[in-house]
Design brief:
Length: 296
C-alpha cells in the first residue's frame, strides 16, 4: 500500500476559464470526451485536446465554477499554449471567451486514504465530481490510467496552509522528482507520452475517448483506430539492467519497434511506446546494447 503523500507540482499545470453560454459546446467540438453532463451538474470531466490527426495536444480537467464559467486545468507547462490554441478555434458566432485565471494558483497532487480526509474534515469527491474547499479552492478526483491522485487546486497564498494541514493529517511531502519516480514505477503516462507523437488510444486513454458524441477534431482517425484495429502502438513499462536514455530506440532483432519515453537516472526502469506484438508482457527487446523486458 502506498504511503500517503502530496507533491507541489512543478512546473505548474495551466489554469484558465471558459465563459459564455457556448462554453461546453465549444470544448465538445475540440476534444475527445463527452462534456455534455456538465450542462446539468457541477461535475468534473477529463478530456483530450487533439489535432486533426488525433495526436495529443493536451489533457484537460474541466469543472464548473459557476452557472456561466468552466475551470480548465492543463498539463504542466502547457497553459499558455493551450489557451492561445483554443482562442484561435473560436468562430465569430461562438458565445465563449477564454480568460486567464484571476489569481496565481498552487497545484497539489495528493495520494491519501480515508483517514487523511477524515483528519482534514474534507469529503473527497466521487468520480466526475468536485469538492469545493472554501473560496476559490477545489479538490478534484483521481483519473484512472492518468493520475490516481486527488488534485488540490488553491490560490497561491493558501498553499503553505494546505501543505501544513496535509502533513499534520499524516501525509508526507515529496519533491517533484520523487513524484516523477513514483509515476514511472507505477507505469503512468506523463508529459513525454501525452504529446503530439501519439494518439490517446496509443497511450491507453481509451476511457477519455467517447464513442457516443458528435463530431470533434480528430474523431475520424480515432474511430478508424478503434473500428479497424489500427491501434498499432502501446505504452509499456520497461525493465533493463541499467538506466535508460529518453529517446533511445527499442529494437527487436535489429529492427526498431519503439522508443524510450520516460526514464530515471538512477534506476533500470522506464516507459516506452512499442509497436505490437512486441508490447505484450514478457517480450524481450534491446536498447543501447542492453536487454529490455516488457513488464506487466
Amino acid at each position: 500500500m502506498t504511503t500517503p503523500f502530496f507533491t507541489l507540482l512543478q512546473p505548474a499545470p495551466g489554469f484558465f476559464h471558459l465563459r459564455g453560454e457556448d462554453r461546453i459546446a465549444f470544448l465538445q467540438r475540440q476534444s475527445t470526451n463527452d462534456l455534455r453532463p456538465l450542462n446539468a451538474s457541477a461535475g468534473c470531466h477529463t478530456t483530450v485536446l487533439t489535432t486533426p490527426a488525433a495526436r495529443i495536444l493536451d489533457v484537460l480537467r474541466v469543472f464548473s465554477l459557476d452557472s456561466d464559467t468552466l475551470g480548465v486545468l492543463t498539463l504542466p507547462g502547457r497553459g499558455a499554449d493551450t489557451a492561445t490554441y483554443l482562442r484561435s478555434r473560436i468562430f465569430f458566432m461562438d458565445k465563449v471567451e477564454v480568460l486567464d485565471a484571476p489569481d496565481a494558483y498552487a497545484h497539489l497532487a495528493v495520494i491519501a486514504d480515508a483517514g487523511i480526509w477524515e483528519a482534514l474534515q474534507v469529503t473527497p469527491p466521487l468520480p466526475e465530481a468536485v469538492t469545493a474547499l472554501g473560496e476559490d479552492a477545489w479538490l478534484l478526483p483521481p483519473v484512472d490510467g492518468l493520475l490516481p491522485a486527488f488534485y488540490l487546486l488553491a490560490p497561491q497564498e493558501q498553499a503553505a496552509s494546505w501543505m501544513e494541514r496535509l502533513q499534520s493529517a499524516g501525509c508526507e511531502s515529496r519533491t517533484p522528482e520523487a513524484f516523477e519516480r513514483w509515476r514511472i514505477h507505477t507505469g503512468l503516462p506523463g508529459p513525454a507520452e501525452l504529446c503530439e507523437a501519439y494518439t490517446p488510444l496509443e497511450i491507453g486513454l481509451d476511457a477519455l475517448v467517447a464513442q457516443n458524441k458528435g463530431c470533434y477534431t480528430g474523431q475520424e482517425v480515432l474511430a478508424r483506430q478503434r473500428t479497424y484495429d489500427k491501434v498499432t502502438r502501446h505504452l509499456v513499462a520497461l525493465r533493463g539492467q541499467k538506466p535508460f536514455s529518453v529517446g533511445a530506440a527499442l529494437t527487436h532483432q535489429g529492427k526498431r519497434v519503439g522508443e524510450v519515453t520516460s526514464a530515471l537516472p538512477e534506476d533500470a526502469v522506464g516507459l516506452g511506446v512499442v509497436r505490437r506484438p512486441h508490447h505484450t508482457p514478457g517480450s524481450r527487446l534491446e536498447t543501447e546494447s542492453q536487454p529490455v523486458i516488457i513488464q506487466p
